Amino acid sequence: MKKILLILVGGTICTSLNEHGTLSISKGAGIRLIENFKSSHSPFKNDIQITPTPNLFILSENMSISNWNLMLDTYRKYINTDNFDGVIFAHGTDTLAYSTALFSLILANTDIPVFFVSSNARLDSERANGNDNFRYAVELICKGIKPNVYATYKNISDGRMYLHLGSRLEQCKNYSEDFFSNGAIDITDGFDQALKLKKGKTPLININGDWHLENKVLMITPYVGLDYNSFNYSKFSAILHGTYHSGTACTEPYNENSVLYLMELSPKENPDIDIYLSPSKNEGEVYDTVRVIGNHKANEKKINFLYGYTNEYTYAKLVLAYSLFKDKKDIEEFINE
Fold first, then answer.
1. What is the DSSP letter of 129?
2. What is the DSSP letter of 109?
């Protein structure tokens, strides 16, 4: 008998139609999810014991640092109440990739598999994929998939079920109901490839430590006409500045639209603030604008280049780094690990 902890975060997978004809989170979501699995054709439906937590009633679009802490506290509270063989978070789709990225770091040393499942529509809708997403997560736990943080999601465009590493999942695009990640595995017809996955080396964090996440990272997305005077830099310890697809950002003209202006402005308001450019690298055959950014100094500080991760993972890692550590060296070591 496999034991699974089901953490009901909220989101569409936990909703039903209300009297206004709109979706709201339902108290009976966990029962419905479990009952639907028990009535499925899964060979494991009579061989598992699922323990649901009280619903956190968090719609995915309302995810925040404080709600992340609520999820973390819920995990801490229940994980040691029994010898669970796996954990499943029932989460919404809007911020799914951010939460999977965060918990792939927080639970890097997990000794059981942790899954995030969601749904494109309420569970009683004919077009919903949530019941399938949940069933595949349960079956992978029962099959003995290696400990890690995953997401199972059936894409609507091709009807195929995919297994994603939580650290690689990317946000669902506008006008789409599909999720993608680098190295995603199609598990529609079998689990052989998924069960061969090995756990990688990742930063180890004491999940039971006396710490919580803090809102210390400002994330800026570049767009035409971006004005850096619009932000309050005194509230944050770090800035995560995104790039266009070629790893670039504006450097000309040198005014409120330029990253060089940001590098001059933000330290005036907050001398200790750190600035990161991601995904971008200051080496090889890069554009002149990237070289200009890399060579620019402001207040004796240079910009930090980060490359190789999704935007969601980079943001989560910075949030975690600036919540866990105060010393700049410790932060730098954690980010580079």
1. -
2. T
- Considering the domain boundaries, does residue 182 fall inside one? yes
Q: What is the dihedral of CA 165, 332, 205, 327, to 10 degrees?
A: -150
Looking at residue 198, its pLDDT comes to 87
Q: 254 is in which domain, residue-wise?
A: 217-336
CA distance 334 to 131: 37
Q: Which two tokens stand for residue 233?
A: 């830099």
Return the structure tokens found at 231. Answer: 């932000």
Report yes or no: 312 and 101 within 8 Å, Cβ to Cβ: yes
pTM of the model: 0.95
Convert the pLDDT of each residue in 110-132 to its tens digit.
999 999 999 999 888 899 999 99
CB-side exposure of 28: number of CA atoms within 13 Å? 8
CA distance 319 to 298: 23
Q: How confident is the model at residue 203 (pLDDT cuts 50, 70, 90)?
A: low
Distance CA 240, CA 219 (A): 5
Count of structural domains, the chain: 2
CATH number at residue 111: 3.40.50.1170
Please indicate, yes or no, if residue 314 is contained in any of the structural domains.
yes
Cis check: omega of the bond before 279, within 30 degrees of 0: yes
SS3 of 237, please? coil
Residue type, 93: T
Residues 93 and 9: beta-carbon distance below 8 Å? no
Cα angle 129, 79, 2 (rounded to 5 degrees) comes to 60
Measure the CA–CA gap between 154 and 163, rounded to whole angstroms: 9
